[in-house]
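User: Hi! I'm a student and our assignment asks us to look at how structure tokens line up with a sequence. Could you show me two examples?

Assistant: Happy to help. In each example below, the sequence comes first and the structure tokens follow. Example one:
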Amino acid sequence: MGDFDAHKIRNICILAHVDHGKTTLADHLIAATGGGLLHPKMAGKLRFMDYLDEEQRRAITMKSSSIALHYKDYSINLIDSPGHMDFCSEVSTAARLSDGALILVDAVEGVHIQTHAVLRQSWIEKLTPCLVLNKIDRLIYELKLSPMEAYNRLLRIVHEVNGIMSTYKSEKYLSDVDSLLAGPSGEVDYENLEFIEDDEEDTFQPQKGNVAFVCALDGWGFGISEFAEFYASKLGASSAALQKALWGPKYFNPKTKMIVGKKGVEGGSKARPMFVQFVLEPLWQVYQSALEPDGNKGLLEKVIKSFNLHVPPRELQNKDPKIVLQAVVSRWLPLSDAILSMVVKCIPDPIAAQSFRISRLLPKREVLYDAVDSSIIAEADLVRKSVEICDSSPEAPSVAFVSKMFAVPTKMLPQRGPNGEILNNYSDENGSSESDECFLAFARIFSGVLYSQQRVFVLSALYDPLRGESMQKHVQDAELHSLYLMMGQGLKPVASAKAGDVVAIRGLGQHILKSATLSSTRNCWPFSSMAFQVSPTLRVAIEPSDPADMTALMKGLRLLNRADPFVEVTVSSRGEHVLAAAGEVHLERCIKDLKERFAKVSLEVSPPLVSYKETIEGHTSNALDNLKSLRRGSDYVEKTTLNGRCDVRVQVMRLPPALTKVLDESADILGDIIGGKLGQTNRDVQKQGSSILQDESSVEGIKKHIMDAVESEILSWSETDKDRAEKYKLKWQKFLRRIWALGPGQVGPNILFTSDLKSKSNDLSVLVRGSPHVSERLGLVDNYSDGDTPADTSSEETQALDMEAESLQNSVVSGFQLATAAGPLCDEQMWGVAFVVDVYISPLAEQSDESDINQQSEQYGIFTGQVMTAVKDACRAAVIQNKPRLVEAMYFCELNTPTEYLGSMYAVLNRKRARVLKEEMQEGSPLFTVHAYVPVSESFGFADELRRWTSGAASALLVLSHWEALPEDPFFVPKTEEEIEEFGDGSSVLPNTARKLINTVRRRKGLPVEEKVVQHATKQRTLARKV
């Protein structure tokens, strides 16, 4: 495949919301250009790319699969992807291997929540997108819109999609401007501002040719260029001029035969834009003549004659008008020609695409190490250059990216090789025990040539070629067993594949878990990690029905973990095997695969394990009073260590919600800055060897976000409280200078503040003073010094106490970490809580003998451990004392339902404790769109129940949104007169929702639960009285 051939390759994926017609569109493209794989009459009914039984049964795509098509002299690798939110990880794998994306939008339903997600994914992966407006026929015979109304609807959808792309562009534009404004000198570099790409031009413009209007089910579609060429001779204008005029407010004046704007048109409001007059109206007439009983049947004959169409008479004489219509329109405006000509024209070939995408695939790395071998750097740069120009010569370094591993039954592998030789597929690298399933790598070659039997290096995302020996665990040597061209479910063996091709590779099953970079040289940077839109949130514990099958389950879990790019398999602290999936449909498929393919054993699946968090009540109205009481130190919980030497006083306060959110979302960056448990790993994956300037900018960014969060809390107050707001801001600024640690895990959304420096130690005891370690790292402290600390030069005993107090700082932090990792309600992590911990150490009592001292320390355990336990207990007790609340995760839910089922839908939402945000009627359709928040704990079975109650008419999509505190007090006891009147003395109060949820979690974890075992009891009576 020479340089000329690489220009003839296109790699595209189809992305859209669920049920917007991706697989049906793929069917028609395969029928037209797949080399006889699919008969055109079966297109749209067979769903060729959905070859799994589960996909056919549910009628949704569950995995991304590729097929090679041939259009004219172009080779097109088409990847079909799922639209369901549960399988959005498959969208990421498809997007990474493609150069362009066909974004499908349903003309009736319009832009949906998953449309936003796939547009974001294509933007992140730097794909060139084309817009396909599908199901145009529904506007004609379902909604019965006039051509003008249909045009306005299509115009609105194109505007909306352009608006979404514009926000992504402006995000980048603003971040580029910010990085220039935050220059080292603090001055604006106006020269560089000119070079930042602005977003003034819309991404999708029909006149540019990157928008197609199609009906995938009937097999027709068109771009504006088709109609421009047809009308060019009739109207006596050039096709280029017509193509610009056939979209937007352009009108045709029949008298002067001129194309004019809105002002130059005669006929005022009745005038129709050219798109309506010359494109939609003829289409509407054809549909009406075919489908309406009194339609003009002669019009179809006229279309057949004028366009010289070859329609078999058998199809024209069919009794079903839909088949007659389909026969004519699919030949008049063939769908495959419209789509594939747009692909060839608008989507770049691999050479152009890789030079544009290189900054995303292989970001430039700054070298920060000294004494690095320059030859390694030179070779790594050569590899990057080869990827950038898509060098397909045999001498170029071979580089490929594996986006996922997928399992294929061994019996499905081709029995013959590329030259017709018979293969033995069972001499597998997996060994005989796993020979039923063979793992193939779904890969794209970015540079050079790959051959079967070639040896390559498999590089993980953490590999760094400059570190040499220390990176051995991140690089493996592997042999490529064989290469296949993917044809949907079928596989076609090939001897070699060149840069720009998408292939399946056998022989890497033992070397790759999820994704990796393949390279013919060690001196190559790994490709950047893929971005996933959501994280696996639905967790269940699984175990075999028969304990003897445990080994088979372990093997099955290993295979499932490798076969699914998104599933997570872990072992919990209680020893359970926990399976984490993206949602219910994803989980059901994983369990089915385990039972029938990978483990082949009967399984017991637990109810979903839902994560909660714990916090305390906090109202914005009394936030200033909370801060004042915290400074006065009046309301605290006190604990003493067992040996009586140490007193721990803890005060607690609720953090502003905005600040909690910032700390939670920035956990990865904070981990890097503070040097917490995440260490270097995340930054290594994203930007290995990044320059120190980037670190500084991330510190500045976090600092800005934290200050903005506090500011936003103040702005939410009324204008009348300006004086109060200013005091609140000043107090918070003082507190932010005293951040000792974050927790749990050193990067969580809870804060430990150091003790107020001005507080004096009483008697002979000494205060353990923490250092504002986190504040210093985040640049919240200008120049922190211990100058305020009282100078203790009195005696050796006091100095020894000071040294001991200093050594106990880590124990205090560890106690805080333990407390925030397991709260008092149900051992779940704390959320948005701030602690001020004062620890006083008293000197040892006069001991007669040194052995007595040792005996005392052994009696109560090590002193540091006692301090840790005391701090943990005090923190938990402080939370219990300050009105604890449970925090639960919330899904954002988008529902679509016909008007007659609104009542049933609201009944389901009420039962699931949902909170409705808004409802609106979709213009020009009988559907209502409702947005609501649904608790994750209530979401299981939600879709099934909704379908059951609305007879399958309503559909729902769930996306993880945020954490929200339950307002109910789990320990509610009636106190006021009204409460006592309503609930009585408290003995008959039923447990509220919060208490029920807490008890459920406590039971699952084996913690004690307060509940009455006997509800009603009477004395036993015996019928026979025998004295």
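Example two works the same way, sequence first and then tokens:
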Amino acid sequence: MVDCSNPAAIQELERSSFEDSSDEITDATASDTSGSAPSESDVELDNENNEDDPASFGGPETVNDGDFDRLVENLRRTDVGSDTTGVLSRVWDFNAEEHDAEFKDDLRAASGIGRVKRKRARRTGPALSQQVKSLIGDGNQAYIDGDLHGCIHIMLEVIRIEPRATSAWSVLAQCHEDTGDIQKALQLRIMAAHLLYDPEQWERLAVQSKEMGYNQQAIYCYRKLYNLDPTNIKALLDRTFIAKEIGDLRTARQSLLAVLKHIPHDLGVLKELRPILIELSDLSTCASLFQAAFEHYQSTFPSGQSISPDTGTSIPGGGFDMMDLFVLADLYNTSTLAQYDKAVYVIKRGCRWLQGRADQKYWDMCEDDREYDVDPDKVPGVAVVRIGDLKPGMYTLDVNARHRLAVARIKMGDVDEGQMHANIVLSENVMDYAPLFAEIADAYFEREMYAQARPVYELLGADATTSSLYVLLQAASCRRMLGDLQEAAEVYQHVILADPLNSDAKMKLAEIYEVLNEPRKALDLVHQVIDHRRRMHRANREGEQSAPPPSSSLFEEKSRGKARESSSKTKTGLTVMQVRALEEQKEKEVLRGYSRVRNLWSGMMSGDELAEREWLLEAEKLVETFRETRNLFLSTRNNPFQGMFRQHRRSKRSEEATEESMAARLQLELVESEQLGQKSKPSKVDVFRGVSFDDWLRLLMQYAFLLTNRSQYSLAEEVLRHILYSNAYQEVSTQDTIRLAIISCASRARQYPAVLEQCRRLMNTHQFNNEPLRILCAALSSGLRQTDSFIISTLQKHMLREMKIHDAAVKNKDTMKWGVVGRRYVLDPTARNKEEEADDAIGDGAVDVAPGDAAAAPDATPSKFLPTKHNPMLVGLYGQICCAAKSYQSAIFYLLHAYDYCPNDPLICLSLAVASLGRAMQRQADNRHHLVAQAVAFLTKYRTLRTETDSGNLDEVEYNFGRAFQQLGLHSHAVRHYERVLELAEDRLIRGEDVGLAREAAYNLSLIYVTTGATPLAQILYKKWLSI
């Protein structure tokens, strides 16, 4: 025996001819393990290809034996006298080898290869033992005597001994029927029918089940009937009608597809099947069926007409008339298929065929629609100049057909041709063709042709018979996209008055109010929407019905739509086609929003307040769309973004989502998360929803800059930090750009700890590079709060470790080790202090790498670059940090090292002079005069080096000398240098140049004047240099 729960056994059993029936009952009745028994038609979808082909069902004997064996096996596991309501609620075992042998015999018979054993005659049942025959006789006698309970007891004993005794089941069912238990009698007859090979018996059981309201059971019986009699189309149609009645559209779909196998291209079946396929979002199948029918009728009736044998009248297209053409064109015009060229082909060629001009194939040579041009005298304003030798045909074209042509041409980008057809349609009476007007306006709107869509929507909204909330909302959207915000707000207000519960209109109006700088009105509308949704959620929760009472049917009898809805909560909830349609809709929304943002960009940059608010509102939607897409923020961030739908082989294991309340976007992402198990070589995609990642980054950074200017730095930092984790922006250059944007925003908001953090991350990323050090010095150039961040202890320790690493790299490369996780060189851990390692782990986690990503990191291999000589900038910067922290002695030590590495750098000389003067002013200095002399010596060398390189910086040199003398108390010398700075500044004023350090020199000079009592001179300086 083979366990059905074993995947290997299931794969083996899928080859057997009775799979369709056996799997159906197994899945339909597995209530003991799952808690709820889905209907038999759930499993049909796993074998839909077999169901469509009548030859794949196997012989009737094989099918019934397989099902009955499982029924009997289940009976043996239960008490003989137990109720049979739950008989089908087990997972049965069966002999796979026996059915595999029968399957091979069927293959030999079908192919004509090999020897096939002669089939035995249909068995009517096993040979019964004398004991069983005696018991059956006793039971029949008890029934004749009217002892129904005794008869039931005897027949149950017969079934226990020999479950294949057909008469026992029949008599037992009759006994229950005589006692009034019709439901149990029906169940027993269904069990007995598995031993009989009578299609009429299954038909009677199906009719009886339908009359008793057991629709799922009736569907099962009709399926058995079709298995036994594959030519019985009526069984398929009855099964279809019942499935449609209970909302089981997938079962109805499979039944009608099976009907089409028998009567292909039947228009009646296609018309029944079309709404079902549309409801299931299977538009591709629907289009292919109608396309095949179109080609079939074209080849069968090349003249475009047929004669009715009953009335003798002409039938256009042999039955495939203009309405069927419209259906096929509408399918191709949907955004799901988006095969607009095929829609044009169908309308042009189909109308030509129905007009009896199928032989005029030369019109297919024309890319335009000159075949159906109109006389400009009859329809003014639609004259089109045609280029070429072929003159316009001027053939008549139905308005509905021209409307399909207009929509297809507009959507495919052939705007001129589409507008020509649209103008002809729009010249008709709007009262007669309002739906066509609306679809043309929608096509314009989809192509972002708001100026063309707006008058059509307004024309529809002007009359109560053609107006609707949708039309008004679209008209308001057009006005908004064209910049008429006040008019758009008026339309939204009108919609809200007509429908106070319209949340969409309220949210759109709130967005306009926000742009118009009316936040209170916007907030009131948002609160109304939130309250309404909460009330609806509470009402839905209170309105939930209790569990249905137990049923006597062999299957779970409830609405198919509700069953699908409940079952989909444990999966993604959407088919792949629906997910793709949802993604296409999101992409269109993103493209529309980005187009609007791009149009507003120049106004926003020029300082237009209204344009800036609207730009922020539109950009916020795009930013949130980017940030909420999980495919852009995977756990393995070194794999590049590969698109929303990646092509690969089907994974052997499918991941099921267990979340019960997922919105549309999460369902889209869950479908993609099931595809992550497939290992394949990553291929980078540079576009997300129609917008390149460079444009996304530009938008995100500009959005953060505007938020920072509006005192919303925390939100701007959150956005920029979030996109650092995106798979789309894991390249080093892009990461640097984002970090520089964070530094810019933090500097603007005076959040200098964030500036320091990002600078340190840049230093860790670009090891042995001086550019991050320059960025640090520029970002923390001057100011008290900047100085506090500059001298913080964590930065000092970080710089000290970097100096040690640099020194080791120059002196002894053997002590260097490449850190895979940090992706930078570090000292050998055995030679490092544990405290330094702990601080390193806390302070220098600059590279955001998950432990599992290290091996796959693109730059995990050691860098070949190592310094060969000492870096004066690193040591000099650390000396300046010590100097700013008033640790002048340490500053002199490190600055002297920098001087040894680069003795001709004026900045190092100036820093040494400052540090020497600072140390000389401290009480602990025991060689004060030596330090002063040393400071003057470095100042002198600084002046020599500075004037040699650039003679235009004399004011800087004079100012620094004046500042040094002022600190030493030599005011007369200081005044002379400060006055020299002011003289140079006056010369610059005459030339119209910047005054340089004049204000700083004037301020210091005024302090000396005030200190020495020369207040009038200080007043002159105030008025001339220090007044605004």
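Here is something you could point out in your write-up. The first strand starts at residue 305 and ends at 307.
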